[in-house]
Amino acid sequence: MRSTRRALAAVVGAAALLVASACGTGEDDDSTAAQVEVFTWWAEGGEKAGLDALVSRFTTACPGQQFSSGAVAGGAGVNAKQVLNARLQQNDPPDVFQVHAGAELLDHIDSGQIEDLSAEFSTWGLTGTLPAGLIETITVNGKLWSVPVGVHRANVVWTNDQVLADSGILTAPKTLKEFIGNLGRLRRNGVESPLALGRDWTQLMLLESVLISDLGPKRFTGLFTGATKWEGEAVADAIDDYATVLGFSNADRDSLDWPQATRLLADGKAGYQMMGDWVGAELEAASFSGYDSFTFPGNGKAFQWLADSFALSSGAANPAGGRCWLQTVASPEGQQAFSVQKGSIPARTDAPTIGFSDYQLAASADWKSGVAVPSCAHGSACSQPWQNAANAALGAFSTSEDKAALQSALAAAAKQFVRQG
Ligand code: GAL
């Protein structure tokens, strides 16, 4: 319980840092250790496996500190972020919490909820080892606010090869038109829901991929800086395409989280799933190997990125423990161990790639050579309130199918939440 944890941290405090702990896992009950509450939304499957890999390194690297999981399940943090915000407002913060690098940090910074980590970045070897573009997105007011652990690619389509082969589909579609053709072919062959999809934020991801195909990476990115208008024909045409693709998805999409949509794919109920590259880790964790993946058709070399990172709460009960967690997260070995399990690629360019899948090696190469575009659904492009508004608009469209209402809701959200410069 929170109060017990606070009391423990206060009593044991810095002295505990000096005590060498022999605990085998971070969850072991060590009454002499100071608890470090790490708040995430990684509660099961490939996500928990990634977190566990960090916990095991933390346990070795931070004697006297004990990992305490504050995980709240729910893809993309839909539930966790609500709990976190309530706790931050009640002045009951976890020591460290998961947050996306980029615009998602802004409200936490504005509200004084997280610590400036600029000095730690150089002590922990992050200066010069993170891609310049990534450093730019986490620098606000000239300071650095969160430690990125891994980079994921959002614009990926995952396949069930057997389902596709049964309909004679043996190659990846190159264009959105070809993709829609394949979806139609699957349905004609008796696959009722060719595209596995989940709730609101997963639908936003699908719309974003269609927008990248139809507008191109530059105009897509401009949607989040004010340079591209949400009103007008280009976005209206993309919404038409989105509605067509959505029509091939499962009718119960609004009640599913992404792992349940992945299950539809693995169980052969769907031929495709559009989702970020944490799906690979999930399928591996479920021992399903009959899959493949390709970049969303028509996205070209666009690498739609998002980065998982951790921030230190301003009111952390155990800031020393929180810093030790962040240092673990910052280390090349921590990032490698995490990514092997999570399906991401390390944020650091000097992290070892031992144990990486062929997909991860290809993703690392694409991250270097591709065109980086940010993600609204996963906070690199949009602040939290903007994400909430976009998710709500997509959720409403899923039942209303009112294209004009969707476009004007997205335009209104951009007007309200865009921040220049
Ligand atoms: C993203 C997060 C990923 C993955 C995904 C699904 O927001 O960055 O690491 O966990 O949600 O839950």
Structure description:
The chain has 421 residues and is of the alpha/beta class. The protein has 17 helices and 13 strands. The chain has helices at 2-12, 45-61, 78-89, 106-110, 118-123, 132-138, 161-166, 176-188, 200-222, 233-246, 258-266, 279-285, 319-330, 332-342, 358-369, 384-400, 403-417, and strands at 34-39, 65-69, 96-100, 139-140, 143-144, 147-153, 156-160, 195-196, 272-274, 291-295, 302-312, 345-346, 371-374. Strands 1, 2, 3, 6, 11, 12 and 13 form a 7-stranded mixed beta sheet that branches. Strands 8-9-7-10 form a 4-stranded mixed beta sheet. Strands 4-5 form a two-stranded antiparallel ribbon. Strand 4 (139-140) and strand 5 form a beta hairpin. Helix 9 crosses helix 16. The protein is globular, with a radius of gyration of 21 Å. The model is unreliable at 1-27 (pLDDT under 50). The structure holds beta-D-galactopyranose (GAL).
Would you identify the regions where 5 or more consecutive residues have pLDDT less than 50? 1-27
Mean of all residue-level pLDDT scores:
93
Helix content: 40-55%
Bound molecules: beta-D-galactopyranose
| Major sheet description | 7 strands, mixed
Q: Report Rg.
A: 21 Å
Ends apart, CA distance between termini: 42 Å
Coarse shape: globular
What's the total helix number?
17
Number of strands: 13
Q: What are the secondary-structure elements, in order, as H or E?
A: HEHEHEHHHEEEEHHEHHHEHEEHHEHEHH
Find the structural class using helix and strand composition. alpha/beta
Proportion in β-strands: 5-15%
